[in-house]
TrEMBL record:
Transmembrane segments: none annotated. This is DNA-binding transcriptional regulator, MarR family. GO terms for molecular function: DNA binding; DNA-binding transcription factor activity. Residues 7-145 form the HTH marR-type domain. The keyword Acyltransferase does not apply.
């Protein structure tokens, strides 16, 4: 195959991966508590857990989602008792999002699940170098205009 055909093949694989992820995301799961969470909720918890004093606008930027979509997700997480809103210490028009104790349990459980899955994937890729992973990451970031 020539360069263009290889690239088109890559894009079709990306579409297949996207379909597989979409299918996976539709099924809610538990993450160490009794709460059933969709993937978007677990990833929102992950972002809050990894970023102190984060606002919903900042989450929207990180997730490439609208502020409205993120606000709906955060409202669900507040209702489930996993996230709380606190006044921003410097700007009373903003709210800081923090994890509750149950939110921290979900955060830790989700992180461990990801690490287990990522290690399993990495074991399948022994023949690829650090440079191969870097190139793959660079290509995907350029295609989808991601900032990492």
């Amino acid at each position: 195959m020539d360069r263009k055909e290889e690239f088109y093949d890559l894009m079709n694989i990306i579409y297949d991966v996207s379909d597989k992820i979409s299918s996976y995301e539709k099924n809610p799961r538990t993450y160490g508590t009794d709460d059933l969470l969709h993937m978007i909720e677990a990833h929102t918890i992950e972002i809050i857990g990894n970023n102190k004093e984060i606002t919903s606008s900042e989450i929207a930027k990180k997730m490439y989602k609208t502020k409205g979509a993120v606000s709906q997700t955060i409202d669900k997480l507040i209702q489930k008792g996993l996230v709380v809103k606190n006044s921003h210490p410097k700007d009373n028009r903003k709210f800081i999002l923090e994890l509750t104790e149950n939110g921290k349990i979900v955060f830790g459980h989700h992180r461990r699940k990801d690490e287990t899955a990522f290690d399993r994937y990495l074991d399948r890729l022994e023949e690829y170098s650090d440079e191969d992973f870097k190139n793959c990451k660079d290509i995907l970031c350029k295609i989808f205009k991601l900032n990492t």
